[in-house]
């Protein structure tokens, strides 16, 4: 039996042993509370209604930090960062729209960057009133976090993006760089795969294996954690929701127009910004890093040697140290 099949079989065996303990709660929250460090626990909540409903998980007290994941993932991808920050901050990890236990609308409008940014702002005001907060994102969540910082500069203390450029920078990059166009071919493929095809091709299982198999094999994720991601991605609507991010925001290169950019083609990031980049990551051409300061004049850049695209989970102490140091310097805990 191939090694990956052995892992999947083991996951199927271990899943019921703890998931059944708290059937009314998100199993990932139950698992987080069972494996947390110290006494500060995790609790879940919801914000919004219908197709705008977001599920989130929070821990700790202090200045608000919101975490937004990418595709394919859900809130638990931030567990290591939540553990590192919870002693000094109120940390809220969101199931992005279309993922986890959040709403999974079929229409594309709710997934547009401008709409998602407005949803983040409404969530932050629900949690924190008019106070500023810090926004941290990974992958699509990073492109969105940087875009939010550009569109809502007075709402943030600071912004952190991991493994991706700002949305408007990426659009410019993919228009001008043929190598980036090649690397982004998968985005255009995602735009064409419908819900029926996702079901027929059993894409949830394939995407889970491709995304998390190596992390489990290396020990960056435990088998139990791998089972959490497997369950979160098992719903075809969750895969479809993630692909809606691409359908809504990534037109063919020839169709990118001035109106495609949000909030604007050359909108700057005025708050302190941190970009964390895994040097083994091939998703984007590394040249974007050299031009990142044109979008974020106050930017700091941390390069993680030997780390690939999953910067929150690959050797998480590296990103945790970078984020903790950055927030200590830019966010008052009073």
Task: Describe the fold and architecture.
The chain is an alpha/beta fold and 334 residues long. The protein has one domain (3-330): 3-Layer(aba) Sandwich (Rossmann fold), CATH 3.40.50. The chain is built from 14 helices and eight strands. It has helices at residues 3-19, 27-35, 79-85, 113-128, 140-151, 167-176, 178-183, 185-192, 195-200, 203-218, 223-233, 236-249, 287-290, 316-330, and strands at residues 43-47, 54-59, 64-68, 90-95, 133-138, 156-162, 273-278, 299-304. It has an eight-stranded mixed β-sheet with strand order 1-2-4-3-5-6-7-8, sandwiched between helices. A hairpin with a 6-residue loop joins strand 1 (43-47) and strand 2. Helix 3 (79-85) crosses helix 14 and helix 4 (113-128) packs across helix 5 (140-151). The termini are far apart. Residues 1-24 have low confidence and may be disordered.
The low-confidence parts are 1-24
**Portion of residues in helices?**
40-55%
In terms of quaternary structure, what is this?
Answer: single chain
Q: Return the average pLDDT rounded to an integer.
A: 92
Q: Which structural category do the helix and sheet elements fall into?
A: alpha/beta
Strand order in space, largest sheet: 1-2-4-3-5-6-7-8
Total domains, how many? 1
Short description:
The protein contains 14 helices and 8 strands. With 334 residues, the chain is an alpha/beta fold.
Key phrases:
14 helices, Rossmann fold, alpha/beta, single chain, disordered N terminus, 334 residues, eight-stranded mixed beta sheet, globular
Secondary structure layout:
Blueprint: H1 3-19, H2 27-35, E1 43-47, E2 54-59, E3 64-68, H3 79-85, E4 90-95, H4 113-128, E5 133-138, H5 140-151, E6 156-162, H6 167-176, H7 178-183, H8 185-192, H9 195-200, H10 203-218, H11 223-233, H12 236-249, E7 273-278, H13 287-290, E8 299-304, H14 316-330
Parallel strand pairs: 3-4, 3-5, 5-6, 6-7, 7-8
Antiparallel strand pairs: 1-2, 2-4
């Amino acid at each position: 039996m191939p090694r990956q099949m052995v892992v999947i079989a083991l996951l199927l065996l271990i899943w019921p042993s703890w998931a059944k303990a708290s059937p009314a709660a998100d199993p990932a929250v139950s698992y987080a509370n069972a494996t947390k460090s110290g006494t500060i626990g995790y609790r879940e909540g919801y914000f919004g209604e219908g197709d705008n409903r977001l599920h989130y998980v929070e821990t700790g007290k202090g200045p608000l930090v919101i975490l937004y994941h990418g595709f394919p993932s859900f809130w638990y991808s931030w567990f290591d960062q939540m553990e590192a920050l919870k002693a000094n901050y109120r940390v809220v990890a969101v199931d992005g729209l279309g993922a986890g236990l959040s709403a999974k609308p079929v229409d594309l409008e709710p997934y547009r960057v401008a709409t998602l940014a407005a949803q983040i702002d409404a969530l932050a005001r629900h949690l924190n009133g008019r106070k500023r907060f810090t926004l941290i994102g990974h992958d699509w969540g990073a492109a969105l976090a940087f875009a939010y910082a550009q569109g809502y500069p007075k709402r943030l203390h600071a912004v952190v993006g991991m493994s991706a450029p700002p949305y408007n920078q990426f659009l410019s990059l993919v228009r001008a760089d043929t190598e980036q166009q090649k690397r982004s071919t998968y985005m255009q493929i995602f735009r064409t795969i419908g819900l029926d095809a996702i079901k027929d091709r059993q894409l949830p299982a394939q995407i889970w294996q491709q995304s998390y198999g190596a992390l489990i094999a290396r020990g960056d994720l435990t088998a139990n954690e791998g089972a959490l991601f497997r369950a979160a991605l098992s719903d075809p609507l969750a895969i479809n929701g993630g692909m809606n991010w691409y359908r809504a925001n990534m037109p063919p290169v020839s169709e990118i127009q001035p109106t495609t950019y949000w909030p604007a083609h050359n909108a700057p990031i005025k708050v302190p910004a941190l970009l964390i980049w895994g040097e083994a990551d091939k998703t984007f051409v590394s040249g974007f890093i050299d031009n990142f300061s044109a979008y974020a004049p106050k930017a700091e850049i941390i390069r993680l040697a030997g780390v690939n695209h999953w910067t929150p989970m690959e050797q998480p102490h590296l990103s945790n140290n970078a984020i903790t140091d950055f927030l200590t310097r830019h966010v008052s805990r009073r």
